[in-house]
């Protein structure tokens, strides 16, 4: 009895809001599979990442195998299959930002947060990731924190920028 | 450091509808041009003309005659691509996709168009959809372009409310609905068949061609994929005509019209401008960009994105159009150039670039999946001055083995084009990474395989 209760309470359940947002997406496409990436993004927006239980739950709504949903989830770099920090820093590592000195910016962030690329701070505040060219090449180096894009970022100014994301 | 809004030069230079069809409507403050202002500035007049006065075949023929070529980097003639759509009228479910997955390093032109002139893209897609008999369109937008997504969605809502999208548009009997589809990362989504797989909710591996998307595209239906800037050229071609369009480019250019061109790197005035095809790279670099920042010298430059080869300062006299850049040995690509200054080591730069290409390989075909990480490993060794005497030959072998025609798509050829040219022009920097001088170099593994 106790075991059953445990399994029940551990079961992943999509919220009503998530479920209805995913079902709304289905109307935009000829085939439900096309909503798989958006469905993963909907879950990630609510929870910060995509927990294991979300994969079969999404697969059930879309009517496709869970392995296909997982295949998609692990292919795309902006779908997170493990927990990330409250804020995700995405540093543009294009050759233009390289020319602009982005490696010293990454080093400065790493030093201040004590994490490397692909890692999350122990307090769960920041995750640091590389990202493809952000299209701000006239203002290199560029980075994003959550949905905000910054250009002309300098290694010695990174501290103040991070401070504005508590 | 500040949050970014305007694109500066593109908004501020003198512009007219006759000479700057893509950018003349831009506001000096860099804010988006919404429907009222867009229509005051002659917006949707070309769509009205196309829907009311022109047969579908005439629109295709006009675009064909204009000489418009794709602006995503490959430069395929747009009218020819459109002409590949099947003539069979019974194949009546057709799609128009806009490739807005702008991720090519050093490219930021589509972002400007979508953020500031979203209705220009909507109008371009409306006319193109009419020509291609597409009933539905998707703008495949990279997920990081959050402002572009918001502005495009607002423009689509405005257009729907004004009867410019939806059923029976402008009383023509033509129906067209348009959606913004945002991605979740991965550079390879910009490859048009990978983009189709991604839109269908699959892993973004490229598809085998043929069949081409015009025959078998999204959900197996005839599909045309065009770049943002390409589609934004369509309204002015329809509105002003072929003769006007052909008069825009400079003498000597085989490409027609204008192009969003840019220059970045340690230059005085990095930016983006709408310029006629055929201007020389020197004019762009000296007159618009103002040359290098004080204290830096131009060492090399790349004409249009990571997948184009490096050129030397002496090549700045090349004309900016496909064959003009072709004459000096590489491709024009996206037309947004990057200046490499004398403080940059080419081995380190190429290490950065190949790390990007290796990470972004979809892993589908072996030469790309295994060859690119191999090049990274060698470049890292050379950067640490721990290279072997065979490393440069191995890199050149990879340049050959990952070149055009030897991989499933254009990703690996694009990755090795800058590598080959960097070794060609700056071989001594690569040699400086070798531990000891080569004596009787053995053929590399790759050369032996050849």
From TrEMBL, chain A:
Positions with a binding annotation for [2Fe-2S] cluster: 92, 97, 133, 137
Pfam families membership: 2Fe-2S_thioredx (PF01257)
The keyword ATP-binding is assigned to this record: no
Span of the signal peptide: none
Note describing how the cofactor binds: Binds 1 [2Fe-2S] cluster.
InterPro entries, alphabetized: NuoE-like, NuoE_dom, NuoE_N, Thioredoxin-like_sf
Gene Ontology molecular function: 2 iron, 2 sulfur cluster binding; metal ion binding; NADH dehydrogenase activity
Key words, A-Z: 2Fe-2S, Iron, Iron-sulfur, Metal-binding
Reaction(s) catalysed by this chain's protein: a quinone + NADH + 5 H(+)(in) = a quinol + NAD(+) + 4 H(+)(out)
SUPFAM superfamilies: Thioredoxin-like
Highest taxon of the lineage: Bacteria
Obligatory cofactor(s): [2Fe-2S] cluster
Keyword Iron among record annotations: yes
Family (UniProt): Belongs to the complex I 24 kDa subunit family.
NCBIfam families: nuoE_fam, PRK07539.1-2
Assembly notes: Composed of 13 different subunits. Subunits NuoCD, E, F, and G constitute the peripheral sector of the complex.
Name of the protein in its database record: NADH-quinone oxidoreductase subunit E
UniProtKB/TrEMBL annotation, chain B:
Top-level EC class as recorded in UniProt: translocase
Keyword Chloroplast belongs to the record: no
Pfam family, one: Complex1_51K
UniProt cross-references to PROSITE patterns, sorted A to Z: COMPLEX1_51K_1, COMPLEX1_51K_2
EC assignment: 7.1.1.-
Cofactors, names only: FMN; [4Fe-4S] cluster
Reaction equation(s) it catalyzes: a quinone + NADH + 5 H(+)(in) = a quinol + NAD(+) + 4 H(+)(out)
Domain NADH-ubiquinone oxidoreductase 51kDa subunit iron-sulphur binding stretches: 347-392
InterPro entries: NADH-UbQ_OxRdtase_51kDa_CS, NADH-UbQ_OxRdtase_suF, Nuo51_FMN-bd, Nuo51_FMN-bd_sf, Nuop51_4Fe4S-bd, Nuop51_4Fe4S-bd_sf
Protein name: NADH-quinone oxidoreductase subunit F
């Amino acid at each position: 009895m106790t075991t059953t209760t445990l399994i029940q309470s551990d079961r992943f359940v999509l919220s009503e809001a998530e479920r209805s947002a995913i079902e709304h997406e289905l109307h935009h496409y000829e085939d439900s599979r096309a909503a798989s990436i958006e469905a993963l993004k909907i879950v990630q927006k609510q929870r910060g990442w995509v927990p294991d239980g979300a994969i079969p739950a999404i697969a059930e709504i879309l009517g496709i195998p869970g392995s296909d949903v997982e295949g998609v989830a692990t292919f795309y770099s902006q779908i997170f299959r493990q927990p990330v920090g409250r804020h995700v820093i995405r540093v543009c590592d294009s050759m233009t930002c390289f020319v602009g000195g982005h490696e010293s910016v990454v080093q400065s962030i790493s030093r201040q947060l004590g994490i490397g690329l692909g890692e999350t701070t122990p307090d769960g505040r920041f995750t640091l990731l590389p990202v493809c060219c952000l299209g701000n090449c006239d203002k290199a180096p560029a980075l994003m924190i959550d949905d905000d894009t910054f250009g002309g970022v300098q290694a010695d100014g990174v501290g103040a920028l991070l401070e504005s994301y508590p | 450091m500040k949050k970014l809004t305007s694109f500066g030069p593109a908004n501020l230079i003198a512009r007219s509808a006759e000479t700057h069809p893509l950018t003349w409507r831009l506001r000096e403050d860099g804010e988006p041009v919404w429907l009222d202002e867009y229509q005051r500035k002659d917006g949707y007049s070309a769509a009205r003309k196309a829907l009311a006065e022109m047969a579908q075949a005439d629109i295709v023929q006009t675009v064909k005659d204009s000489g418009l070529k794709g602006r995503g980097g490959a430069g395929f003639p747009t009218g020819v691509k459109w002409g590949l759509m099947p003539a069979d009228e019974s194949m009546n479910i057709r799609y128009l996709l806009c490739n807005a997955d702008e991720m090519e390093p050093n490219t930021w032109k589509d972002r400007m168009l979508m953020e500031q002139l979203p209705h220009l893209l909507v109008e371009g897609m409306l006319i193109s959809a009419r020509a291609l008999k597409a009933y539905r369109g998707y703008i495949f937008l990279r997920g990081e372009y959050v402002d572009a997504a918001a502005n495009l969605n607002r423009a689509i809502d405005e257009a729907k409310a004004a009867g410019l999208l939806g059923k029976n548009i402008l009383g023509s009997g033509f129906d067209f609905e348009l959606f913004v589809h945002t991605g979740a990362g991965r550079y390879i989504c910009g490859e048009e068949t990978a983009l189709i797989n991604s839109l269908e909710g699959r892993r973004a591996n490229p598809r085998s061609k043929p069949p081409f998307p015009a025959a078998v595209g999204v959900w197996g239906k005839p599909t045309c994929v065009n770049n943002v800037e390409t589609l934004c050229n369509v309204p002015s071609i329809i509105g002003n005509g072929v003769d006007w369009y052909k008069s825009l480019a400079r003498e000597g250019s085989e490409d027609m019209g204008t192009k969003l061109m840019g220059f970045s790197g340690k230059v005085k005035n990095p930016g983006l401008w709408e310029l006629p095809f055929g201007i020389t790279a020197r004019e762009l670099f000296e007159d618009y960009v103002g040359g290098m920042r004080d204290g830096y010298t131009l060492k090399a430059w790349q004409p249009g994105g990571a997948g184009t080869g490096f050129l030397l300062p002496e090549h700045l006299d090349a004309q900016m159009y496909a064959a003009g850049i072709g004459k000096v040995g590489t491709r024009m690509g996206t037309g947004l150039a990057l200046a490499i200054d004398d403080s940059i080591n080419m081995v380190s730069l190429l290490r950065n670039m190949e790390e990007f290409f290796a990470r972004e390989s979809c892993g589908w075909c072996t030469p790309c999946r295994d060859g690119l990480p191999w090049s990274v490993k060698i470049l890292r060794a050379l950067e640490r001055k721990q290279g072997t005497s065979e490393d440069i030959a191995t890199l050149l072998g990879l340049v050959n083995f990952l070149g055009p025609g030897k991989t499933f798509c254009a990703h690996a050829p694009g990755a090795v084009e800058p590598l080959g040219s960097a070794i060609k022009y700056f071989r001594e920097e690569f040699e400086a990474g070798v531990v000891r001088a080569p004596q009787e170099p053995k053929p590399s593994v790759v050369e032996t395989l050849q």
